[in-house]
Write a structure and sequence with these properties.
mainly alpha, membrane, TspO/MBR-related_sf, 152 residues, 80% helix
Length: 152
Amino acid sequence: MMSRIYTHAFFICAVLVAGFIIGMTNMPGEWYESLAKPSFNPPNWLFAPAWSLLYVLIGWVGARLFLRRQDRAVLFWLWIVLLVMNFSWSPVFFGLHFTFAAFLIILFMFIGIIAFIALAWHRERFSAILFMPYVLWVGFAMVLNGAIVYLN
């Protein structure tokens, strides 16, 4: 029981810390402020709490899959790929200012999250449910990213 608690705590903390570091090293800044943005662009302060909550859910799912990796290997590897895509988006968008490349990353991430939910639904339903807010937020972020590409 304690090892499960430690595993969940480790995964949640690792995902949160990595997300925090990537966020702090890829701040929006003046470049982002100068971009034309759609009317549905949320205020900047909303992103940190939204991603923090999502990173807790992502970490929880990662721990569940790690603990069951012998019979959930495909889901665990898909989780890793999704996390790499997630963590690459900010450096590509905010760091390199490659808005279209970032759009492609988030598009594939969105498709990957949908695939994850579909694959997990019968064998790992709780994880699939935990990814529902993730797919909704990434879907919104994808539309926002696409609108920024279009407007600029």
